[in-house]
Amino acid sequence: MYKFAAILAVVAAPAFSAGLEIDLEGEANGTIVIDLFEETAPLHTAQIAAIAEAGSYDGVVFHRVIDGFMAQTGDVQNGVMGGDLSRAGTGGSEFADIPAEFSDIPFERGVVGMARAQNPNSANSQFFIMFEPGYFLNGQYTVVGEVTEGMDLVDQIKRGTGANGAVIGQPDMMAAVRVTE
């Protein structure tokens, strides 16, 4: 019941700000700016903004980073720096999962998409930033925004190893995430 009430609160909330500023720490250090696409993915962007405004993204690591593909973060349950990161990438937030909001926007370099499980309606708090185009994701994942400043910093995020891109050792993290207007 709590998750249902939480998602209703997010959806019923008044209009929110249109972007994120993310302070990166690790191999990448600096601030990136993301423009959120509220009209394209209103449920997803509202949930991201609510999580950011609560401070829940602060200290969350980039747990899955695949060179030439993408950097994934946003596991506010199991991906917080200083905690046990062995399950990073398996959690979400206190909010309910979000139904897919697929669009015609292609997955180009710098596009931000919502991570999910096999079920297309299972996105929650995790998102990824594309290093390179990934057109095979088109129509399969929800596009929520794009990096408008700091792609050079995104390119510096510590890469993972192996096919799943798991980051070994000290991963880079989102030290602070702010919602912007």
Mean pLDDT: 92
Helix content: 10-25%
Principal-axis shape: globular
Question: How can the largest sheet be summarized?
Answer: 9 strands, antiparallel
- Spatial separation of the terminal alpha carbons: 32 Å
Q: Write the element-wise H/E pattern from the N-terminal end onward.
A: HEEHEEEEEEHE
Total of DSSP H or I helical runs spanning 4+ residues: 3
Could you name the ranges where pLDDT drops below 50 across 5 or more consecutive residues?
1-17
Radius of gyration based on Cα positions? 15 Å
According to CATH, the homologous superfamily is Cyclophilin-like
Structural class: alpha+beta
Number of domains: 1
Counted beta strands: 9
Percent of sequence in beta strands? 25-35%
CATH fold group = Cyclophilin
Please give the CATH architecture.
Beta Barrel
In the sheet with the most strands, the strands line up as: 3-9-1-2-8-6-7-5-4
Specify the CATH class.
Mainly Beta
Short description:
With 181 residues, the chain is an alpha+beta fold.
Characterize the structure shown.
The chain is α+β, with helices and mostly antiparallel strands and 181 residues long. It has one domain (2-180): Cyclophilin, CATH 2.40.100.10. Helices cover 15% and strands 25% of the residues. The chain is built from 3 helices and 9 strands. The chain has helices at 2-12, 42-53, 151-154, and strands at residues 19-25, 30-36, 60-61, 64-66, 70-73, 111-114, 127-130, 143-149, 173-180. It has a 9-stranded antiparallel sheet with strand order 3-9-1-2-8-6-7-5-4. The chain is globular. 41% of the residues are buried.
